[in-house]
Amino acid sequence: MSKKNKKIIGSVSKDRTSQVADFHDESAKKTSIFENKWLTYSILALSILIAYFGAFNNDFVGWDDNAYVYENQDVLKQNWGRLLGAIYEANYHPLTMLTLGINAMISKKAGIFIFTNVLIHILNAILVFVFIKKLTIGKLNIAFFTALFFGIHPMHVESVAWVSERKDVLYTFFFLLSSIYYVKYVQEKTKKFLTLSLLMFLLSCLSKGMAVVLPLVLVLIDYWIEGEIKLKNILSKWHYFAIALLFGLIALDAQSGGNFGGLFIRISEGSAMNQFWSFSDKLLFAGYGFFTYIVKLFVPYNLHHFYAYPYVNEVKGSVFYFLPVLSLLLLVAAVLSYKRNKALFFAVGFYFVTLVLVLQIIAVGNATMAERYSYLPYLGLIFGILYLVDKNLDFKKLTLVFGLVSLVFMFLTSRQVETWKDTKSLLENSIPHHPDDSYLASSLGTIYAKEGNLDKAIKVCEGPISRGAANYKFYEITGNSYFLKNDLNKAIKYYNDGLVFAKDSIGKNVLYRNLGVTYQKIDQNEALKYFTLAYENKKEVDLLKLKGGSYIALGRYQEALNDLNEVYRQGFASDSTFTDMAVAKYELGDRVGAVKDLETALKINPNNQTAKNNLKVLGIN
């Protein structure tokens, strides 16, 4: 063998080969159970299913579910055209409405709707894992626990267990997909991923208007990847911003009571905007909510579905000034961390951007905050916290702690799911936090009264009355309860007291009518007086029927006939209307007319026993 062909293999070369081989052997070994994506997805899905298992037996709740599902004929009968082109509850979200219609095709019961919400929520948790994995380039522990805490956090129960919040889980699903495709586009420079990201963004906007903040999140993603925010990156997202502008204008118009220049069908009239508070008050509420959500991320306590606005004098309380200051300090700290702490800037930025539209700076509705608003924003905070923990502490040593926290969250979530069992459970969970709120107390009092639990109905409304609550609904429900207990004098007292606080025609009408019905058992002249006041206040046909009944009881038959004929002329005559007309005509000497009206009453309702008996009295069999 020639020297040319001889190969000398020294000990150093052998060692290097061995080291390379050892390196590849170690990298081939799975360093985390989360490298098995199907096992990871299964753990996430199982954890969420355990936490939300009780939700599958829940019913609809009387808080928007009626408007969105069980009283919405477009959903129940799958009127696809209207579902695509209508504004429901001051929101344009056609894709959400389509999914509700598809659910209704399968079953009209709440279970299928809730199951779908939970299923989408599971998919969202999986997408969170994928998203964080891509952002951190494979930090699986961070990705897993971010997804797990997102999936089982008690603050997210409202978004998942409440049927009407389909829009929350659905828009987040497409929002996350859009973000993932954008990261893939940035990393791989493949245009198809940009196209897919834009398509997912469009679907997200069609699911809920909140999605319009996605372009700002994409700017934050650029910052995370490149370490700075560049003007060229912002400008390159012009197509995202164009879509966001369009859907932002649609959302603002819908919330303000419009139909976007006649382009859409508006199902219900009225604006959702709250114009009561000053701009400075709104800023205080924004700061209060911003920090309260953060507190509840760590300590999810006192969770309930309705965070009422405070009374004017309560705004002066220290908490409404102290928490906004803390919020401002956190935002300043995040801005100052722009170059020094990428995780803090990204986390707080993501949280702020995805939350800012619902911080009540533009006040919508009657609540300062809502647990559902934390659904997507918490993703930024959870990720940022876990990333900083991994960077500064031994993450593996804290895994047991995170596991225990997860078990606590799963337990709290399962308990919170129970509060969404039905309307009564929902209200009973919230009223201890806002006992004087007119919506909560009157709604719960009405439920108790319908159940026949009159003492509870009285108790829930008399409490606010004793504390000076100025809302006629408390007096109405308390009066109704005493009426059903046959304590007519107390019923009359509460109805009369309530008139002081009935500022609009609706409230006055209700109380005048109730006074009339109560006085029918005591004094027909007083009954007629209040029915007349109610009719003068708001001309409703059924008040003419009630007036007619009182006129008959007082022997004023011609006046009774005048009112009842008007009911007939307006096309609202029922079988009982004709029996009353028959009495009036008979007493006025029109026997033929009386017989004819009684026969008409029986045609409308063959089981009208009063009409049958009166015909027998008149000798007609």
Automatic annotation (TrEMBL):
Keyword annotations: Membrane, Repeat, TPR repeat, Transmembrane, Transmembrane helix
TPR repeat locations: 575-608
Ranges annotated as spanning the membrane: 38-56, 110-132, 139-157, 169-186, 198-221, 241-267, 279-299, 319-336, 343-367, 373-389, 398-417
InterPro entries associated with the record: O-mannosyl-transferase_TMTC (IPR052346), TPR-like_helical_dom_sf (IPR011990), TPR_rpt (IPR019734)
Keyword Nucleus: no
SMART domains: TPR
PANTHER family: PROTEIN O-MANNOSYL-TRANSFERASE TMTC4, PTHR44227
Protein name listed in UniProt: Tetratricopeptide repeat protein
Native source organism of the sequence: Lacihabitans soyangensis
